[in-house]
Backbone:
């Protein structure tokens, strides 16, 4: 059986690693990605806030050596989900099974003024460039704002506001500065009231303005104001933005999307095309767009494919994800959330501690050891 896996992000790496561990050379897995390296989402914040270097957080795909898995670095230009065939810079590839794990793309140009006078930190380049912007910042009003829903890692804007506050305090600039957060959500972490309360209390303690339930529509660079909600305006000296998210154009062009994302069976991750699965941020499966959910979905697809090879029964997706939340000052919290189709999401919160900061470091280290076979720690 040949399995084509499109995208070597959180989901594609977990899927191909599990297939190799379980089936080794019994399957032929081709993993295709346009990039030559993987970077954790949280590493973008670590680099941006000067905790580590860009070089340290890059994990080269060339280091992947796994029985049964061939990595191809190439851009995918076309997907035919019926023929299970893709066109790439390196030529065409065809599989018996196709798994689309191409993530969400970002469209900063969709928000007027964002590229001109703001700084998006969700792309790799954007996050790394924002490090220099923060280095040069001499104090003033910082606005962290979200320009579209859905967006990756719902805690990340809150984490960013807290880390901006910490940075300004460390550099002695907090007194002459303001920090504001504009979020489309009514509370920071909707499935966990305890996590939301802890964040809102910390925002109040650290004098971070909280503006819920609204999106950033545009920046007006001439007047240095953020336009948000229906008719709101607020001044900024430094705007840090989460851009609008879209499915990668190649997925949209393949006709696989409905309302912008690939619909899948929430229990099996099957698409409407036979033997074609989709997982992670590129889908509308109903979980937040976050690596831990992509990983959980990859395990379910891997399980189904292993079961198929061995003639066994496969498990179903449980919608569970365990996320770490940076509070700054070396404190990290944890929330264990479950998004099951047709049920109200729930979450269990562990308050911030240094111990959870160490557990977050282990979380990253374990995955790099499994996926890339090397020893690493996040900072
Ligand atoms: C600042 C920030 C902090 C975050 N923190 C966390 C966190 O703490 N925990 C957490 O769980 N998640 C976090 N996330 C979210 C997380 O990074 C993503 O949700 C996760 O990576 C999604 O995994 P995925 O496999 O679905 O897609 P991705 O990891 O995005 O992988 C998709 C892959 O597809 C490739 N690709 C796309 N188009 C093409 C093409 N045409 N041809 C070839 N290759 C292509 C891309 O190069 C990419 O490697 C964070 C994100 C950000 C931005």
Residues:
């Amino acid at each position: 059986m040949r399995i084509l896996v499109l995208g070597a992000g959180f989901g594609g790496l977990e899927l191909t690693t599990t297939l190799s561990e379980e089936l080794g050379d019994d399957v032929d897995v081709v993993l295709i990605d346009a990039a030559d390296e993987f970077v954790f989402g949280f590493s973008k914040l670590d680099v941006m806030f000067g905790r580590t270097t860009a070089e340290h957080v890059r994990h080269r795909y060339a280091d992947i050596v796994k029985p049964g898995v061939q990595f191809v670095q190439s851009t995918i230009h076309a997907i035919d989900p019926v023929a299970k065939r893709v066109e790439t810079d390196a030529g065409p590839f065809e599989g018996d099974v196709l798994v689309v794990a191409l993530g969400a793309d970002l469209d900063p140009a969709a928000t007027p003024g964002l590229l001109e006078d703001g700084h998006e930190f969700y792309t790799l380049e954007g996050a790394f460039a924002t490090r220099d912007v923060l280095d040069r910042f001499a104090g003033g009003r910082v606005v962290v704002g979200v320009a579209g829903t859905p967006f990756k890692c719902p805690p990340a804007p809150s984490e960013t506001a807290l880390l901006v506050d910490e940075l300004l305090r460390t550099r002695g600039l907090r007194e002459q500065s303001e920090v504001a957060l504009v979020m489309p959500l009514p509370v920071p972490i909707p499935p966990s009231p305890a996590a939301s309360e802890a964040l809102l209390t910390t925002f109040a303690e650290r004098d971070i303005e909280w503006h819920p339930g609204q999106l950033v529509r545009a920046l007006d660079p001439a007047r240095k104001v953020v336009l948000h909600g229906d008719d709101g305006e607020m001044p900024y000296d430094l705007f840090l933005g989460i851009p609008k998210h879209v499915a990668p154009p190649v997925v949209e062009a393949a006709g696989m999307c409905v309302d912008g994302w690939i619909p899948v069976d929430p229990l099996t991750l099957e698409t409407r095309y036979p033997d074609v699965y989709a997982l992670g941020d590129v889908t509308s499966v109903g979980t937040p767009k976050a690596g831990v959910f992509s990983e959980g979905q990859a395990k379910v697809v891997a399980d189904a494919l292993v079961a198929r090879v061995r003639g066994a029964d496969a498990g179903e997706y449980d919608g569970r994800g365990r996320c770490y939340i940076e509070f700054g000052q070396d404190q990290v919290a944890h929330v264990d959330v479950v998004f099951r189709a047709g049920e109200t999401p729930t979450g269990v919160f562990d308050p911030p501690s240094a111990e959870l900061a160490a557990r977050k470091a282990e979380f990253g280290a374990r995955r790099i050891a499994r996926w890339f076979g090397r020893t690493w720690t996040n900072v």
Summary: The chain has nine helices and 23 strands. The radius of gyration is 21 Å. Residues 7-12, 32-35, 41-42, 44-45, 75-76, 101-103, 122, 152-153, 156, 248, 250, 280-281, 289-292, 294, 323-324 surround flavin-adenine dinucleotide (CB under 6 Å).
